[in-house]
Specification:
Layout (H helix, E strand, L loop, with lengths): L1 H9 L1 H4 E5 L9 E3 L2 H12 L6 H9 L5 H12 L6 H10 L20 H20 L6 H4 L2 E4 L1 H7 L10 E4 L3 H7 L8 E2 L2 E2 L19 E3 L9 E6 L4
């Protein structure tokens, strides 16, 4: 059992999400992802999970290579509650929300700051990001929005009135002081009663990788690579 476990943990297939390279590409050459590889890239980015049966069916038929089918599937997936992974995973990494737990304000000036308040701030940001995606809003909304999503604890911290309970809800800014407090720093999106408000999905999306767009990859050409490319950690974006 120990030898088997060591083999699993040492395998790159356990650590990385690998994409098979075509046989006719040179090292460093950009090539288009197709079929199951494209479905996997799309699903792990939008849902943080492997492709579902419908996406695999479309990918294996070759229809996913059609830009119209690709957009249709992306919109279907964005309307699914599993797309909340964008806020919980992509936005968390993109905006470096983990850094908020490294903040230790002077307790003489901020005696009420603790991890519960930090949790509320990260939830706020995740919800606001999902709101942008689900409502198909411009990214500038991050800076220009006149509302945010808070519970009682966070609203009190921002100086907002009339918010009670742990439930997060959309609240407009009522004065400049609370607007500056929440500021264009971190906002969040729609999570009313724990369920996202889904209407129109976003028009555009990235693949979360550092190489090209969601439909392309770059050949590695590394010795012993097995003609695979695995630049992404499993579950990362």
């Amino acid at each position: 059992m120990r030898d088997a476990l060591e083999a699993v943990l040492a395998s790159p297939f356990f650590v990385l999400r690998l994409e098979r390279e075509p046989d006719n590409v040179d090292p460093g050459e950009t090539y288009r992802l197709e079929g199951p590889e494209l479905a996997s890239r799309l699903s792990f980015f939008l849902w943080g999970t492997p492709p579902d049966a419908e996406l695999l069916r479309v990918a294996e038929s070759g229809d996913l290579n059609d830009p119209r089918q690709l957009e249709q599937q992306a919109r279907r997936m964005l309307a699914d509650p599993r797309a909340e992974a964008l806020g919980n995973r992509f936005a968390f990494q993109w905006l470096r929300l983990q850094d908020i737990y490294k903040v230790r304000p002077d307790p003489n000036f901020f005696p009420n700051f603790d991890e519960t308040l930090a949790d509320a701030m990260t939830t706020e940001t995740s919800l606001f990001f999902n709101h942008l995606v689900q409502q198909d809003l411009d990214a500038l909304e991050l800076f220009e929005a006149d509302y945010t999503f808070v519970n009682e604890r966070l609203a009190t911290h921002y100086g907002m009135q009339g918010v009670a309970g742990d439930h997060f809800r959309r609240v407009p800014y009522t004065d400049e002081r609370s607007r500056r407090a929440a500021g264009p720093r971190q906002r969040a999106g729609p999570h009313v009663a724990g369920k996202p408000d889904v209407t129109r999905p976003a028009r555009q999306m990235g693949d979360g990788s550092a190489h090209g767009d969601a439909t392309t990859a770059t050949a590695t050409g590394h010795p012993g690579s097995g003609r695979h490319r695995g630049h992404q950690w499993k579950g990362s974006v």
